Amino acid sequence: MPAAEAEIAAARLLERFPGGLEERAADDCTELTVFTDEQGEAEVFSAFSDVSAERVEPAWEDRWKEFHRPVSAGGLWIGPPWMEPPPGRPAVVVDPGRAFGTGAHPTTRACVELLARVDRGSLLDAGCGSGVLSVAAARLGFAPVVAVDVDEVAIEIARETANANGVEVNAFRADVLLDELPRADVLVANIELAIVERLLQRVASCIAVTSGYLQSETPRKRGWARIDRMVLDGWAADVLRAE
């Protein structure tokens, strides 16, 4: 596929296959590869038009680990449990085998970088997924940290992520567009732009760190002013202040 479309396609694939994928670039095209079984193969064929399949050598089940590499953001090391963080470096450990987000995506890294720049206080992680932003916030000194998601499995994983990292996160199921949300000094929301804009109408926060959209996009909502922005690999994250 054209290289310009590969980032979006990779994000779609990782939603279905959090174990990871391989990316190979050639000229102006990018090839994305996932390792899966027959059921997963059928899912890929139903979701994408330009697809081919082939059998791979034994022990492919462990090759997904090669895809996951630690990243740094906001002074934190973010990586999988089979890798050791540098001595003395604050760490966020995320198991990509069950994760709804591992920390490696540009939107997640940008959110962590921007969280490191804002004043500490209470924090609400709206649409928390694996809880990586909640744990990162706790590592950065935000407290109390509340995490909500509409998906019960995501909440279970967010709790596991918090427990594995030894931090306190109050995670519970909630629809960020329908349910009453707790008041917090800082909101972080790494979700699609349309939901971000609707969410900004509902929260009682002074600061919002938002992402989940491309560099060409920006939240537009009365009552909020952008005071900071970070762009990574074509994706954007913003710090907004309530006016």
Written overview of the protein:
With 243 residues, the protein is an alpha/beta fold. It has two domains: 3-65, no CATH class; 97-242, Rossmann fold (3-Layer(aba) Sandwich), CATH 3.40.50.150. It is built from seven helices and twelve strands. β1 (22-26) and β2 form a beta hairpin. It is globular.
Amount of beta strand: 25-35%
N- and C-termini, Cα separation:
43 Å
Going across the biggest sheet, name each strand in turn: 8-7-6-9-10-12-11
CATH homology-level superfamily of the largest domain: Vaccinia Virus protein VP39
The CATH first-level class of the largest domain comes to Alpha Beta
Summarize it.
The chain is of the alpha/beta class. It has helices at about 5-15, 40-45, 65, 105-115, 130-140, 150-165, 195-200; strands at about 20-25, 30-35, 70-75, 75-80, 90-95, 125, 145-150, 170-175, 185-190, 205-215, 225-230, 235-240. It is globular and about 55 Å long.
Topology:
Layout: H1 3-16, E1 22-26, E2 29-33, H2 38-47, H3 64-67, E3 71-73, E4 76-79, E5 91-93, H4 106-115, E6 123-126, H5 132-140, E7 145-149, H6 152-165, E8 170-173, E9 186-190, H7 193-199, E10 207-214, E11 224-232, E12 235-242
Parallel strand pairs: 4-5, 6-7, 6-9, 7-8, 9-10
Antiparallel strand pairs: 1-2, 3-4, 10-12, 11-12
Helix pairs in contact: 4-5
